[in-house]
Design brief:
alpha+beta; 7-stranded antiparallel beta sheet; ligase; Amidoligase family protein; Amidoligase_2
């Protein structure tokens, strides 16, 4: 597959933009997965706990591999309890609690292996090296990893975290507008799995927010853009999750979602829509990146973007009965 170049290939520092990739799947436990990663990309294995491993010092950095449930891993707060060092007796009791806790979490992990997905969190990869990363998806497929379409019980996804080009409100607004306009096309292209449609992890934006953002009169500064997003989207579960980026840009913002444990501040978009299509030969991060690049292309073409926004607003303002009739006519024509 030919990797598509984004219209803006460099970040604000003049370096090649990078992309973080996360994927969930079944059929391979974390240790076996970590061995595949190390075989492909080198590095050293670091067993953090029985069901959480790192492959460090690869060509791109650190891969994290774990069972995707917090109950299979030791609780960091317990391990680092500062009150456990008050006396010899307290240290002894604390150590016993830790040992019991670690063993319990290990047993839980053993029990749910095969029921909850394994997750790989890849290090940031230069966008023009994503085809090299796709060797990982091919190897997972060959070793029996199961993706979204292997079972109705599997709502697995692939997430892309494309590094932003810059941080100003005009650029971020253009990206949001382009995504809102292309969200339906992306869903059709990806053929989002029915299980993932039912689960709340990648919900679409509500129409009221789309109408606000696509209105040509909407011209917010950065703080207003962030506040409006939080007001209309008080959740992590959006197909394009902006919380990590906004937490990075405004670390002192008072909204609780920007300080939640699962919100990791970073200078990236968090695109959550794609399925984990491991049963599809040739599928990988490059394919999903190429789809994402269409959003960036539209955002970079201000004339076309504004025209598309105007078309969206005009279509919504037409009488509902007229829109329903036209949709019905188009559907009947396709069925003939």
């Amino acid at each position: 597959m030919t990797l598509q170049a984004p219209p803006n290939r460099l970040n604000s520092h003049g370096n090649i933009r990078q992309v973080g990739v996360e994927i969930e799947f079944a059929g391979l436990p974390p240790r076996d997965t970590a061995m595949i990663v190390r075989e492909l990309f080198g590095g050293e294995l670091n067993v953090v706990s029985p069901h959480r491993l790192l492959v460090e010092n690869t060509r791109w950095g650190e891969f994290g591999i774990e069972l995707d449930t917090q109950y299979a891993h030791p609780d960091k707060a317990l391990l680092e309890d500062p009150n456990a060092q008050d006396s010899e007796w307290a240290r002894h009791q604390h150590q016993r609690r830790i040992q019991f806790h670690q063993k319990t979490r290990e047993l839980i992990g053993d029990m749910v292996t095969g029921l909850v997905p394994t997750e790989i969190v890849c290090p940031p990869v230069p966008w023009n090296e994503l085809e090299d990363l796709d060797a990982l998806f091919e190897a997972l497929r060959e070793h029996g990893a199961k993706g979204t379409d292997a079972s109705l019980m599997y709502g697995f996804g692939l997430h892309l975290n494309p590094e932003v080009e810059r941080f100003d409100a005009d650029y971020l607004l253009a990206m949001l507008r382009a995504y809102l306009l292309l969200a339906g096309w992306l869903r059709d292209e990806i053929k989002v799995d029915i299980t993932r449609e039912v689960l709340p992890h990648a919900n679409p934006f509500h129409k009221a927010y789309a109408l606000k953002v696509l209105d040509s009169r909407y011209s917010p500064d950065l703080d207003t853009l962030i506040d409006d997003y939080l007001h209309h989207n008080p959740t992590r579960n959006r197909e394009l999750d902006m919380l990590p980026l906004f937490a990075y840009l405004r670390p002192d913002h008072g909204h609780e979602l920007l300080h939640a444990q699962l919100t990791k501040p970073r200078p990236t978009f968090h695109y959550r829509l794609p399925n984990a299509q491991l049963s599809q030969p040739g599928w990988g991060s490059a394919m999903e990146w190429n789809r994402w690049v269409e959003v960036e292309k539209l955002a970079a073409n201000s004339e076309v973007l504004l025209a598309r926004c105007a078309e969206y607003i005009a279509e919504h303002n037409r009488p509902m009965l007229t829109r329903v009739k036209e949709k019905l006519v188009r559907w009947l024509r396709r069925e003939r």
